[in-house]
């Protein structure tokens, strides 16, 4: 995955950075989208994460940049930023916005409807999981990070994130199975 | 049973992956312009037709009369070393600042990015910004004001290379002999047109200069000015006195205006 990115960044940040953005924008936006309520917030968060990454690169030694696991590093910046923002927002809010905001209001073209429905089904299933496992499964299987990148993103040991992903998948399968049972019952009735 | 589970898991992962989501179209550009790696430009209405206005992290960096988008971008990249791309509009605050400046307001203009220019060129352009809307000054005036009285020709070149026309009013710098002088953004005719927009009668200025009148004074205040100075324009015909040069004005007891600061008449004046 963009194996030469760190080298380019290390030798010339301004020349390498546009490549980094082009390559990782879907990853960062995807993580941002799953950590915020509204799409506008996700775009804003993703933009801010990249800007912070750019500034951070300015302070890093070339050797440190070469060793970066870029995907995991960007994911950790995005997640931390999302957490800080959520915390900041929690203080003044009266808890009303959760009620007011519909999660996905924008209507898509007809061809996208089916896909979109499938997405929301999986999103709903993932949301049933405890945050720790949901986050691990999302980063591994939705965003497509490798386990070492995942360890970097979450700041946890490799073994821990692996086991979190496996447990998350198992829990997810239980959710699906339960749905199956419920569906069958409804048919039998 | 085990393979069944594997297949199921794989289908599950595949379904989840399809929900990864695509970054919105403008995200990369927004990031790159925020960190100053890509500048933006758009079309803005100017005093004598549309303008291309470019800006980056540090402010407005280019203003040119509209016409050749590709040429504008190529020149920009060559001069600044940064890439630039067209966007639908300017950030509202910056646009308001540009408009304020184009309409002649003396404060509230946009921040300007002159970093691609030499120190001398920057000094010339900053001084030019001080010439009020509706007034003109000679090249030699700019040269003296920036402490380089002999560098009149260099002032002309610096103004000719003004990358931010109209916002930096290089059209308000004319020849000391009253002729309108050259103009990078469309030649002398365009220069007349912009000055006319600002209420300057360039024909009258030229006629005056032909009669040998460089300065005008008021016999009630005994102060002399450039003819386009807002103080000079308040002098009624009955009290107006014309002067060939500063020496003539001073010989009859006039002092220079503190607002337009007319030249003392050096032999190097253009």
What does this protein look like?
The complex is a heterodimer of chains A (189) and B (270). Chain A has 189 residues and is mostly helical. Chain A has ten helices and no strands. Chain A folds into two domains: 1-102, RNA polymerase sigma factor, region 2, helix turn helix motif (Rna Polymerase Sigma Factor, Chain: A), CATH 1.10.1740; 107-189, Orthogonal Bundle (Arc Repressor Mutant, subunit A), CATH 1.10.10.10. Chain A is 79% helix and 0% strand. Residues 93-116 of chain A have low confidence and may be disordered. By secondary structure, chain B is α/β, with parallel strands linked by helices. Chain B has three domains: 27-102, Double Stranded RNA Binding Domain (2-Layer Sandwich), CATH 3.30.160; 119-205, Winged helix-like DNA-binding domain superfamily/Winged helix DNA-binding domain (Arc Repressor Mutant, subunit A); 214-256, no CATH class. Chain B has ten helices and ten strands. The chains are: A mainly alpha (189), B alpha/beta (270).
How do you describe this structure in short?
The complex is a heterodimer of chains A (189) and B (270). Chain A has 189 residues and is mainly α.
Low-confidence stretches of chain A: 93-116
Class of the largest domain in chain A in CATH?
Mainly Alpha
CATH-derived architecture of the largest domain in chain A = Orthogonal Bundle
Going by CATH, the homologous superfamily of the largest domain in chain B would be: Winged helix-like DNA-binding domain superfamily/Winged helix DNA-binding domain
Shape of chain A: elongated
Distance between the termini of chain B: 96 Å
Residues in helices of chain B, as a percent range: 25-40%
CA-based shape of chain B: elongated
Structural class of chain A: mainly alpha
Low-confidence stretches of chain B: 266-270
What Rg of chain B do the Cα atoms give? 26 Å
Number of domains of chain B: 3
């Amino acid at each position: 995955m963009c194996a030469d990115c760190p080298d380019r960044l290390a030798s010339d940040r301004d020349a390498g950075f546009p490549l980094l953005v082009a390559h990782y924008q879907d990853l960062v936006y995807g993580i941002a989208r799953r950590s915020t309520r509204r799409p506008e917030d996700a775009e804003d968060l993703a933009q801010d994460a990249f800007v912070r990454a750019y500034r951070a690169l300015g302070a890093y030694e070339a050797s440190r940049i070469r060793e970066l696991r870029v995907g995991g590093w960007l994911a950790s910046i995005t997640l931390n930023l999302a957490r800080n923002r959520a915390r900041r927002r929690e203080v003044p809010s009266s808890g009303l916005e959760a009620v007011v905001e519909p999660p996905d209001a924008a209507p898509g073209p007809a061809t996208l409807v089916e896909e979109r429905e499938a997405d929301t089904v999986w999103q709903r299933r993932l949301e049933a999981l405890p945050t720790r496992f949901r986050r691990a499964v999302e980063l591994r299987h939705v965003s497509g990070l490798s386990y070492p990148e995942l360890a970097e993103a979450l700041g946890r040991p490799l073994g821990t994130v692996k086991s979190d992903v496996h447990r998350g998948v198992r829990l997810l399968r239980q959710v699906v199975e339960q749905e199956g049972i419920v569906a069958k019952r409804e048919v039998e009735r | 049973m085990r393979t069944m589970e594997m297949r199921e898991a794989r289908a599950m992962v595949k379904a989840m992956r399809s929900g990864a989501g695509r970054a919105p179209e403008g995200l990369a550009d927004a990031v790159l312009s925020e960190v100053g790696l890509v500048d933006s430009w758009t079309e803005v209405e100017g005093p004598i037709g549309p303008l291309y206005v470019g800006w980056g992290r540090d402010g407005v960096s280019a203003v040119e009369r509209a016409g050749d988008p590709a040429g504008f971008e190529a020149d920009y990249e060559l001069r600044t070393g940064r890439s630039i791309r067209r966007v639908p509009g300017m950030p509202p605050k910056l646009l308001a600042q540009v408009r304020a400046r184009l309409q002649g307001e003396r404060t509230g203009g946009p921040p300007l990015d002159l970093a691609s220019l030499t120190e001398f060129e920057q000094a010339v352009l900053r001084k030019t910004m001080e010439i009020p809307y509706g007034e003109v000054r000679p090249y030699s005036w700019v040269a003296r004001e920036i402490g380089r009285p002999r560098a009149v020709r260099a002032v002309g070149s610096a103004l000719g290379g003004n990358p931010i026309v109209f916002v930096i009013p290089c059209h308000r710098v004319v020849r000391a002999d009253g002729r309108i002088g050259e103009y990078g953004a469309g030649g002398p005719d365009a220069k007349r047109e912009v000055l006319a927009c600002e209420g300057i009668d360039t024909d009258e200025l030229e006629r005056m200069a032909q009669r040998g009148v460089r300065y005008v004074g008021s016999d009630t205040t005994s102060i002399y000015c450039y003819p386009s100075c807002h103080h000079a324009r308040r002098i009624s015909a009955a009290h107006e006195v014309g002067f060939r040069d500063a020496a003539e004005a001073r010989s009859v007891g006039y002092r220079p205006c503190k607002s337009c600061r007319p030249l003392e008449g050096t032999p190097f004046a253009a």
